[in-house]
Amino acid sequence: MKIIKQLAFGILLLIAYTTNAQLSVNVNIGTAPSWGPSGYSNVDYYYLPDVQAYYDIRASQFIYFGNNRWVRSRYLPRQYRNYDLYSGYKVVLNNYHGRRPYANFKNHRRDYRVGYRGHHQKNIGYRRVEQRYAKKPAYSRNNKYQDNRRYADNKRYSKKSKSHHENKGRKRD
């Protein structure tokens, strides 16, 4: 009887352990983006001075002022669609954990003007470079044309070629 109780207790512990393991699955919602500055784990918002917008890390959304109201979006506004988030400076808002970081927008805009650069920031991840832009083809007719165009802008070359063409048409004495 004692062995059956120990076996039942062991099975019960095994079930409790597997249930606990299943409940501790980690979901990566609200993790910092790869373009975010490294070294900040307990932060909710970044302020991007160049575009005068915020980034909500938990919701993975940008917050910017548009159409006379604060807008939350997965993307930056159209005028900043080519903005490079990896090289742009991010101000880490350590002291704010509410839902409206733009409540301090006047202070943020005053303290961190467009073009503001504080200390050097290292990004969490790396920018992915697409292969089609990373490598130039070894040879193509267009490259040859571009190489020839560069000489056409050279004045000495163009004078030489003019005199060469003029002399080619004349007969030598």
Task: Give a quick rundown of the structure.
The protein is of the alpha+beta class and 173 residues long. It is built from 5 helices and 5 strands; from the N terminus they run αβββββαααα.
If you had to describe this structure to a student in words, what would you say it looks like?
- The chain has helices at residues 2-23, 105-111, 131-134, 141-152, 155-169, and strands at residues 45-48, 53-56, 61-66, 69-73, 91-93.
- The chain has two domains: 29-130, no CATH class; 136-166, no CATH class.
- It is 35% helix and 13% strand.
- It has five helices and five strands.
- The chain is elongated and about 80 Å long.
- It has a five-stranded antiparallel beta sheet with strand order 4-3-2-1-5, with no helix packed on it.
- Residues 21-28, 131-135 and 144-163 have low confidence and may be disordered.
- The longest helix is centred in the first third of the chain and has 22 residues, at 2-23.
- It is an alpha+beta fold and 173 residues long.
The helix content is 25-40%
Major β-sheet annotation: 5 strands, antiparallel
Strand fraction: 5-15%
Number of domains: 2
The largest sheet has its strands arranged as: 4-3-2-1-5
What is the N-to-C succession of helices and strands? Answer: HEEEEEHHHH
Tell me the span between the first and last alpha carbons. Answer: 128 Å
Q: Helical region count?
A: 5
Structural class: alpha+beta
Number of strands: 5
Sequence stretches where pLDDT stays below 50 over 5 or more residues: 21-28, 131-135, 144-163
Mean pLDDT over the residues: 76
Shape field:
elongated
Radius of gyration: 31 Å
